[in-house]
Design brief:
- The protein is elongated and about 100 Å long.
- A hairpin with a 7-residue loop joins β2 and β3 (43-48).
- It has a 6-stranded antiparallel β-sheet with strand order 4-5-6-10-8-7.
- It folds into 3 domains: 10-191, no CATH class; 226-267 and 304-416, no CATH class; 268-302, no CATH class.
- Helices cover 44% and strands 14% of the residues.
- The longest helix has 24 residues, at 355-378.
- α6 (232-243) packs antiparallel against α7, α7 (247-263) packs across α10 and α7 (247-263) packs across α13 (355-378).
- By secondary structure, it is of the alpha+beta class.
Length: 419
């Protein structure tokens, strides 16, 4: 909380708070702590009341949450926090002009700003390391500590210079700055396969409860169970899905299980018709006619791949098993899922539904939703004409409940299908 005393460090950082509403200030003896700069809970800065230069610099800095960077508001220069480099390093001193979207941007690796040098010393770890890995500050401070230890031991230090990657005069919105950074990464890599890369972070995702699958979908763990040998191909797909931390791949592996079983799925009446032909006592004397009968039965099945998948799910999957995964997440599944990339899945259920309601409506709604998600994941080539699911952190979060649902269906099909 900011103290209203005009003599506190917090009161001297009013402009900083205006530029960085994600951050919080808390007064301490002879200084203050900046919490959550960049909106990053893992990082804090200790600012002393004697740190006039740092206070001055902070009041002209924007900490953009999507970047490991400082945005100098007066010059509009974006300073990406990089590392210590030797004077003869091939990147240090590299400078180029990029023309992009009818603007010119000067990009260069050169000395870090005074502000960054001061912030490295003021850096404090405030939480466990996350996706941002402390915005490179922990490593920079460790190097300074290493140099200091060598100095105190009268050992030679390693000559390194704190180097930033600068993009000058970036007069853009933060969203457009992300687009610019993505293109800079691409073109630097095009000309230098070992080029460093601008770190671009996703918007933080706070809601994690949706990502957890139901632990006991069939009730209490049984004391005894009957196992049968499963199809080795399906078992391999299931193992790959279980081992993958990526919900995109887990969804697709589980979808392949269902797709594989659906490919070999025959409607019950067709299966019965074939069995009748095969079971005929006189089949040895009329093999040619029996072959034609079986062929006629199979050709008569005009079902599409989509309808086969729907039929396989309906035939093998217990809706109550699926409902056990949906019910705890009714708030999620009762709203459309809007993915980055423009693809949207309609609400699967209504807020007040029971198992009976779901049982009456889940076919073909659920199989159709899963098929559309799968298409949006793998058919990126259609993104000019149709919407897709981009590989963003937000989409990973949104996809996890659907992946858990896909997994519940896949394991039921593995158990009950004859594949």
């Amino acid at each position: 909380m900011v103290n209203g005393d005009n003599n506190t460090v917090s009161s001297r950082l009013g402009r900083f708070l205006e530029l960085n509403p994600e951050a919080k200030l808390s007064d301490q003896d002879n200084g203050c702590i900046i919490e959550s700069p960049w909106g990053d809970d893992s990082i804090a800065f200790r600012v002393s009341s004697e740190s006039s230069e740092l206070i001055e610099d902070l009041n002209s800095l924007r900490f953009p949450p999507r970047f490991t960077a400082l945005w100098h508001t007066e010059s509009k220069d974006l300073e990406f926090i990089y590392t210590f480099l030797s004077a003869d390093h091939d990147e240090r001193g590299r400078r180029f002009l990029l023309q992009f979207n009818n603007r010119y941007y000067t990009c260069e690796y050169t000395d870090a700003s005074r502000a960054l040098n001061l912030l490295v010393n003021a850096f404090r770890v405030a939480g466990p390391v996350g996706e941002t890995t402390y915005r490179n500050l922990s490593g920079l401070k460790s190097f300074l500590r290493y140099q200091k230890i060598r100095e105190q031991a009268n050992e030679p230090t390693v000559e390194r210079f704190l180097t930033s990657f600068w993009v000058r005069n970036v007069d853009l919105s933060e969203e457009d700055a992300v687009l610019l950074a993505r293109h800079i990464n691409f073109y630097m890599h095009y000309f230098d396969r070992r080029s460093s890369r601008i770190l671009i972070h996703e918007e933080p995702i706070r809601e994690i409860s949706l990502e957890t699958p139901v632990r006991y979908p069939s009730g209490a763990f049984p004391a005894e169970m009957l196992g049968r040998e499963l199809d080795p191909f399906l078992l391999s797909l299931w193992e790959s899905s279980s081992a993958s931390p990526d919900p995109f791949r887990r969804f697709l592996y589980n979808y392949q299980i269902v797709e594989y079983s659906a490919f070999y799925y025959l409607r019950e009446e067709i299966s019965q018709a074939i069995r009748r032909v095969i079971a005929s006592p006189d089949i040895p004397s009329r093999l040619e006619e029996a072959s034609r009968q079986i062929l006629d039965v199979v050709v008569a099945d005009r079902a599409t791949e989509e309808s086969k998948l729907t039929s396989a799910i309906q035939h093998y999957v217990d809706p109550s098993f699926v409902w056990s995964e949906i019910e705890p997440k009714t708030d999620f599944f009762s709203k459309p899922t809007e993915f980055d990339g423009g693809f949207s899945v309609v609400a699967l259920v209504k807020q007040n539904w029971t198992l009976d309601d779901f049982r009456a409506a889940w076919i073909p709604k659920l199989p159709d939703s899963l098929r559309k998600i799968r298409n949006a994941l793998v058919h990126a080539r259609e993104s000019r004409q149709a919407h897709c699911v981009l590989p963003t952190a937000r989409n990973q979060h949104l996809l996890r409940p659907w992946t858990n649902l896909m997994s519940a269906i896949a394991i039921q099909i593995m158990v009950y299908s004859e594949s």
